[in-house]
Amino acid sequence: LSTMIDDMNKTMALIEELEASLPLAAVARKELRAKMHKDVGRDFPRECSVIEVRYLGDEAGILCHLDFGSSDTQNSFHVSITHIKFNPTDPLTRKIDAYSKHRIKRLRKLNNF
Fold first, then answer.
1. Residue 32 to residue 9: CA distance in whole angstroms
2. Which helix (H) or strand (E) holds 6?
3. Model pTM?
4. β-pair partners for 64
5. Rounded CA gap, 112 and 91, in Å?
């Protein structure tokens, strides 16, 4: 049994597609906005844009740099792609969802959740 969480070929292909589509409209999940509010001390809108993506290996997976459209340059938000939602009509959304579901399933299995 492989201990790799991500399928590297599929993950790299997804990252290439994501990079070619930047910026991507997204929605920060409620839990993410609550954590950001706690960390920064202000509210954040649901809507945001993914302006950069990076792969941080099996440990962190695909990381997204979010832009909330404010002039706040002191706070930079980098979050796992699993913490944001994308437009259901965007052709990439199905691939993002498949990646996220696979990653979460593998993490649970490896961590015996």
1. 28
2. none
3. 0.86
4. 53, 79
5. 33
Phi-psi region of 69 (alpha: psi -120 to 50; beta: other; left: phi over 0): left
Distance, CA of 21 to chain centre: 14
Residue of 75, 82, 38 whose CA lies nearest to 60: 82
d(CA 67, CA 43): 14
Which of the two residues, 15 and 110, has the higher pLDDT score? 15
CB atoms under 10 Å from CB of 44, counted, come to 20
pLDDT band at residue 111, thresholds of 50, 70 and 90?
Answer: confident
Q: Strand 62-67 vs strand 47-55: parallel, antiparallel, or unpaired?
A: antiparallel
| Rg of the chain over all Cα atoms, to the nearest angstrom | 14
Preceding omega of 23 cis (within 30 degrees of 0): yes
84-86, strands of its sheet edge to edge? 77-80, 62-67, 47-55, 24-28, 84-86
SS3 74: coil
> For the segment 8-66, what is each residue's pLDDT rounded down to a tens digit?
999 999 999 999 999 999 999 999 999 999 998 888 899 999 999 999 998 889 999 99
